[in-house]
Amino acid sequence: MRCQRCGDKADLIQKFDCDGVEKTVSLCKRCAREVLKNGSRIYKPGLVIMAKHSELVQDTILSYTPDLYGNHLNVFIAMPVAVQTMLFERDEDSEDRSMKEIYKRELVILKDRLRRAVANEDYRTASMIKRRIQRLEEILKS
After folding, report:
1. Which residues contact 114 (CB under 8 A, 6 or more apart)?
2. What residues make up the domain containing 55?
3. Claim to verify: residue 88 and residue 120 sit in the same structural domain
4. Tens-level pLDDT at each residue, the chain (142 residues)
5. For residue 121, is it left (φ>0), alpha (ψ between -120 and 50) or beta?
6. What is the pTM of this model?
């Protein structure tokens, strides 16, 4: 696995659950030292947003609506990434990493919805979801 910041071989790899989506952080020793030394500022407004997000996630049902993209999905897809950007100081690659993280989170949810659509024999919805999954996977490869 590669370091998320510089692309060298990752020495530290940590996986954890972030609102139901597996997140992997991988850093080389140099970047890990740099992040710990320089990137450890946590902003108070970000902590407030994180607390509100946690409350919202606890009160939101992931399968709330059969629509492909209900507004509630932003609670699980974009908000955790937005909270992360509000918590920590940004660097020149923060926006790219955030967008990739949003796409990865969307993929997890869409794959679950695809599984449900196929199980319910809703092939029209399954087809729409599959096309979106393919587009996201192409974006993440580039």
Report:
1. 126, 129, 130, 133
2. 45-141
3. yes
4. 888 888 899 998 888 766 666 778 888 888 888 877 765 555 566 556 666 656 655 555 554 444 545 556 666 777 677 767 766 667 788 888 888 888 888 898 889 889 999 999 999 999 999 999 999 999 999 8
5. left
6. 0.57
Does residue 13 sit in helix, strand or coil? Answer: strand
CA-based diameter of the chain, in Å? 53
Same domain? For 79 and 109 the reply is yes
50 & 35 share domain = no
Task: Find residue 17's DSSP bridge partners.
Answer: 22
Residue 124, SS3 per DSSP: helix
* Domain shared by 62 and 22, yes or no: no
Tell me if residue 6 falls in helix, strand or coil.
Answer: coil
Question: Does residue 100 sit in the same domain as residue 134?
Answer: yes
Q: DSSP for 28-92, please give it.
A: -HHHHHHHHHHS--B-HHHHHHHHHHHHHHHT--TTS-SSSS-TTHHHHTTHHHHHHHHHB---T
Contact status, residue 106 vs residue 77, Cβ threshold 8 Å: yes
